Amino acid sequence: MKRSANLIAASVLAIATVLSAMPASAKYNARTFKVSNGAAEDHPVSAGVKGMSACMEKASDGKMKLRGFYNGQLGDDAEATQSVRSGSIEMVVTGAAAIGGIEPAMSAFELPFLFANDAEVDAIMTGPYFDYVAAKMPAHGLVLLSIWENGFRNSTNSKHPIKAVADFQGLNFRVMQNNIFLDTFRRLGANPVPMAFGEVFTALETKAVDGQENPLPLIEASRFYEVQKYLTLTRHAYSPTPVLISKMVWDKLNADEQALLEKCAQEGRVAQIARSREAVNEALEKLRSAGMEVSELPANEMTKLREIVAPVYEAALPTIGEENYNKMTTELKVIRGH
């Protein structure tokens, strides 16, 4: 009997050891998060929303999912971001410019010609600068889950081809309500007109403005080719799209739910970035097929363009903050091997 008792005790101990080594079952409640975005549903951002939602549904056995709202249905970027801060909308995938007025560290992304290529973008968006910005967001009622992309921005107009910097002179360009973008286009000799994205198509159609600047997939998805003739591949700035959740909503989630959202936002980023970069070439071909005249500035004119807008960096320091600017530029130097 003693030997049997010892065997039973040993078996119980072994089972307890195995059980203690196994992770506890994750706890998920039934939740559907509304996600606001200003772009059309066929824009690459929807690939991120769908990828993130699929990840959440799979891991939570269908309990947690996203519901995307596009075309600014829940308000433009600024309005939707404020709604997320108040908790009336759970999430937003928004432009960095909408966050720059809230958190200056996000404004560093708006500098002209900040990134040379996609590799630099990816290193910054998933590296120490992301962590640095993310740590600042809860103070603003937001939690930064990931940074997806809108992409490199290019210029369109209805007046004439832009083949030299001088061709910007006098054009009325719609830009975001953002001091860095306003300064950039003023220095080029254009007349920047701040305007909400939802108003742009009508403004172009009625000739209230001559041109606008956005990434190619957004230009194509927004059908700007119907009201714009000339496309210039300037790649003058890069637009990230932060994925944010209301801190009020976040604080009501348990640790398992929070971890799942973070994990799936990163999985969503992989899907969104892949689709975004595929869409660039697809959009360019569609825009050409739709009748847009596509041009690029010669190398000497691009050099001149960069030189003309270079003072924007110093002028933007009060907006960005010296510490934020130094962190961004130092990290870029490390990435570039300087």
Q: How would you describe what is shown here?
A:
- By secondary structure, the chain is of the alpha/beta class.
- It contains 14 helices and 9 strands.
- The chain has one domain (28-335): 3-Layer(aba) Sandwich (D-Maltodextrin-Binding Protein, domain 2).
Gyration radius, to the nearest Å? 24 Å
pLDDT average, as an integer? 92
Spans of at least 5 consecutive residues whose pLDDT stays below 50 are: 1-24
Strand content: 15-25%
- Number of domains in the coordinates? 1
What is the number of helices? 14
Order of helices and strands: HEHEHEHHHEEHEHEHEHHEHHH
Total strands: 9
N→C terminal distance: 75 Å
Helical residues, percent: 40-55%
User: What characteristic shape results from the CA principal axes?
Assistant: globular
Superfamily at the CATH H level? Answer: Bacterial extracellular solute-binding protein, family 7
Biggest sheet architecture: 9 strands, mixed
CATH architecture: 3-Layer(aba) Sandwich
CATH top level class name: Alpha Beta
Produce a short descriptive summary.
This protein has 14 helices and 9 strands. The protein is of the alpha/beta class and 338 residues long.
Q: What attributes does this structure have?
A:
single chain; 338 residues; alpha/beta; D-Maltodextrin-Binding Protein, domain 2; 9-stranded mixed sheet; 14 helices; disordered N terminus
Write the layout of secondary structure elements.
Elements (H helix, E strand, L loop, with lengths): L1 H20 L9 E6 L8 H15 L4 E6 L7 H10 L4 E3 L2 H5 L17 H8 L2 H9 L5 E16 L14 E4 L3 H9 L3 E4 L5 H6 L5 E5 H6 L8 E17 H4 L4 H35 L3 E3 L3 H11 L1 H10 L1 H14 L3
Parallel strand pairs: 1-2, 1-3, 5-6, 5-7, 8-9
Antiparallel strand pairs: 3-8, 4-7, 4-8
Helix pairs in contact: 2-11, 7-13
